[in-house]
Design brief:
681 residues, alpha+beta, Collagenase (Catalytic Domain), Neutral endopeptidase, domain 2, four-stranded mixed beta sheet, three-stranded mixed beta sheet, disordered N terminus
Amino acid sequence: MKLFSRLFLISLLISAPIVAYQAFAKATDKEIGFSINNMDSSLSPKNDFYNFAVGNWLKNAVIPDDKTRVDSFTEAFDQNSLKIQKIMEDAAAKSSKAPQGSVIQQVGDLYASGINTELINKLGITPLQPELAKIDAISSKEDLITLMAAQGFMGMPSVFGIFVMPDKKQSNINALYNLAFLVLGKDFYENPDYTDQRKAYLAHIAKMLELAGETPNNAQTQAQTIFELETSLAKAMLSPIEAADVNRTYNKMTVAQLQDKTPNINWNSYFSASGLANVKEMIVTDPDYLVTADKLLAERPLDDWKTYLRWQVLNVSGSTLSEDFFQEDFNFSKKIMLGLEKPLPRDQQIGEIVRNVLSHPTAQLFVEQYFPPATKAKAEEMVRNIKAEFKIRLEQNSWMSEATRKQALNKLDKMQIYVGYPEKWLDYSNVTIKRDDYFGNLIRLNQWQTRRNLDQLGKPVVDELFMGLSKPTEVNAGYNQVGNRIEIPAGILQPPFFDASMDDAVNYCTIGAVIAHEFTHGFDSNGRLFDADGNLKDWWKPEDAQKFEAKANQLVEQYNKYEVLPKLFVNGQLSLTENTADLGGITIAYSALQRQLTDQQRSTKIDGYTPNQRCFIGWGQMWKSKWRPEMLRQTVLTDPHPPSQFRVTGPVVNVPEFFSTFDIKKGDPLWRDPEDLTIIW
């Protein structure tokens, strides 16, 4: 596990989104974009559309030893990585002469500190010794709570954490939230499929403790204690489906109410150690988990909790330490859990960490060198067209009442869309970055980020754009429910998602469908519960809500039937919001495309296919993917995004125009009767 959950769980970002560096290092943007060479034209789109669209690519794609999957996202990410790697190396060469606190100095010195493995290996566990000494010095449960807060502030959370974000029911004011923290999640401890991994986890804990200086016998005993504590916490934790319920996870309590529910946690001490004063209330996302944690704090001996804190510090920090810690962390968290055979080369690992923790400084350099204004302008034009098409579809919607339609149109009108990068970059210059202090650099960055976050408590919300999973270099796009806004980073505006030289049919049904997907998130099962101003407030007429839920349930039933691996099926409820957005994405994008095509263009074939056919083929190729089974299983069990092949076929078999485009008729395998289609937007 990498250091610092607040800095976006870096290890997960390293393992999942990165593609085979060497496999695509010499690829051009054009080669990874839309291509008829990806198709298997021996198949009929009437029988197996996914393999028709990407069958040849699937036959030839190879997952390298240091990757969990290859797909369009990893292809694009790899291209970004090549560019970012050059940025890092150039910055490192210039940073010694750059002004302190400048973008070049910070990016260059952080990168240089991370690739200095000679110094990192020499230090071993030394960077962690001050925190381990603090744990050893704990003499009371009060001390324990205080240190949990202080180490959480540094990016080493134990049991739970706190953070500030807009109040979901008063979206113009920032509120304090409490979040359950368990690195491996509920399913790992309870699902029979993870029996072997749980045994490996116990051995991993013991090995890490041995590396930290424990005897083998003590390490094994302590590992059992840690696992028992985590298992007890996991039992009380919300499931992924429950945790996705925005109403269930909104539980505002005064400090007095909180103290009454959890008498063994001195909240004033916890807040004070976090640098907060005069906290009046907090929104608890998982009350049962917090109550269970409180009981365990009272019931379990202090030494058990000291053991647990030592493990948490090791677990979140191990991969930033010397090679022995790094390798043990990799063997469990990447090899056993995800199926990787070897880690990424060190320079790529550190480049990715720098990109995440110095997101805006890195992005400034990226945008200056690799994101031309013409790309931004073209994407913004497409955004306007997609939004206009969605408005038309809302106006023409046949199942929604006028009262609800009026509110929906108002929400769409107020929705803000930002493309590429922020107008104002976040200034990191006050953070001290040293060329010879990798671990300390990460600690200081996390403390700075935490301080900035907690300082917003009780203040009016000021949107900070392109942060987190929507930072400018990210191959992603996102809808923010509370902000009622969409962010489309520069990192995704490249092949295979966007190509300015490609025809509209392909662009509209790749990046255009991604944009429409994000618009639809504002009106999915969760997004629809937020009003035009981003408040958690039901604005639907009851009869309209019932109609929507009936359609949503049809999608749940449809996706529940998709078998991913033997006896492992898509969870239609867990993936509902993404499936709804995928359906809206391709439906709206296809309709928007129709308004761009001239009569002559409609009948003009490129590579033997009409614009409408290229649209759907482009959609299929955008979701091409090949996964390691370990990662695929974990994704199905915990991730709201279904496996890619079902993101292709699941939506299109609900789009009437798909059937006419490929002349699919009753009796063909993909045919569905009109009354069986789920049409929402």
